[in-house]
Structure formats: C-alpha cells, structure tokens
Amino acid sequence: MARRLNLESWKTKDGARQAYDAKRKIVLAKPQTYMNNSGVPLRLIASWYRTPPEALLVVYDDMDLPFGTIRMRPFGGHGGHNGMRSIIATMTDQFPRIRVGLGRPQFESIDHVLSPFTAEERAKLPDILDAAAHGVQLWLDEGIEPAMQFVNNLNVT
Questions:
Q1: Strand partners, 28
Q2: Domain presence at residue 1
Q3: Is residue 152 within 8 Å of residue 73, measured between CB atoms?
Q4: pTM of the shown model
C-alpha cells in the first residue's frame, strides 16, 4: 500500500512504524510489538488521529483461509487470531478487516507463520498482495461495499 500511495517516509511512534499522508489523511501502521499486543499501538494511533473504529482497516494473515484466499468483512470476532484478539480487547470489534490466507499447516502453526514461502507460493505472492492492496484502495476511494464485492469475489490462486 505504501508504494501505491507513494509513501516513503516512515517513523516509529507508539509501538508501530507509521507513514502519514496528510493530503489524503491516511495513516499506514505496522505494529512493532508482539502480535498478541498489536491492539495497543492501534488504539494509541487511532486516539492520536481521532479515528473512529469504522474508519480503520486492519489487514492481516489468516491460517484458517487457504493460501491466497482474501476475504473482507465490515466487523466481526477474532476467529482465534491473537493479533485480532488484542485489537478487539483494546478497542472494539466494529472495524473492517481484510484477511489474507496463509493456509493451515500440517505441522506446528508458529513454524508455518514464521517460515519462508515456498517457491510456488512466492510466485503467486505478487498477485495476492496486489489484489489485497486493490481492495484497500477501493475501500479508501469507494467504501466498504465495493471493496467487499471485489475482495470476496476474487480467485487469485
């Protein structure tokens, strides 16, 4: 997303790397905390910029979706994802989110999430990331409904 928006200047504040686009009033944030604590930086950033939950979009990986599957919802629960559990616990569950599928591993989950992508997955990754970024762009430009229609009807893999 940063490349699409031509954002090159990042700062670290409130436990997250942040890039701010004053013209469009957009903040990209990458929490630098452990995933289980990612809600704290988000709450601090949302508070600083006076951003209501429905104006946040959280994009995250999800082992419960097949690799490359992308889904968008206007709100919901954590689905067992510890990062989402933290965000919901520190804020609310009333914010949109885009889930990008990693696939369920046949071995230990932590090893799967921290392992490099296979050659086959790496080949598909640019299309998957581009599709997710396009969903974010649609959300910014046109709102939740057009973004959900695009994202939820994708077949990237």
A1: 19
A2: no
A3: no
A4: 0.89
